[in-house]
Amino acid sequence: LVRRKGLEADRHLLRCLFSYVDFSTGEPPNTNSKDYYQIQLLKQECSNLLGKPSFVSNLTYAIDHPLHQQKVSLRNFKKD
After folding, report:
1. Cβ neighbourhood burial of 18 (10 Å; 0-12, 13-18, 19+)
2. What whole-number distance in Å separates Cα of residue 9 and Cα of residue 15?
3. pLDDT at residue 29 in the model
4. Alpha helices per DSSP H over 21-80
5. Are 11 and 59 in contact, with CB atoms under 8 Å apart?
6. Half-sphere exposure (CA, 13 Å, Cβ side) for 70?
7. Which positions ≥6 away from 20 have C-beta within 8 Å?
8. Tens-binned pLDDT, residue by residue, of the chain (80 aa)
9. What pLDDT was estimated at residue 78?
10. pTM, whole model, 2 decimals?
11. Nearest 10 degrees: CA dihedral of 22, 26, 32, 37?
12. Beta-carbon neighbour count of residue 77 at 10 Å?
């Protein structure tokens, strides 16, 4: 689907993946975690997008425009 629809599909997929992952624990999930497979898909998708010129804009768009059901705002995380 992403290959056929392009930029908008890439953005939407990233938004969905970021929105359904609970980042509040700050810990990597184990295989029993309910977010484990979403995180694996998010990592895979980010790896696939690294070679595309739109990667940075898609990533920032996904973070800046979360879906309404996003569990934890990524803006709350600060780099120490």
Report:
1. buried
2. 10
3. 74
4. 36-49, 55-64
5. no
6. 20
7. 35, 38, 69, 71
8. 667 777 788 888 888 888 888 777 777 777 887 788 888 998 998 898 898 888 899 889 888 888 875 454 555 544 44
9. 47
10. 0.67
11. 50
12. 11
7 is written with which tokens?
């930029």
Q: Mind giving me the DSSP string for 3-35?
A: HHHTHHHHHHHHHHHHHHS--TT-S---TTSTT
CB neighbours of residue 19 within 10 Å: 17
Residues 6+ apart with CB under 8 A from 54: 7, 10
Q: Are 61 and 74 in contact (CB under 8 A)?
A: no
d(CA 61, CA 12): 9
Longest CA–CA span in the chain (Å) reads 40
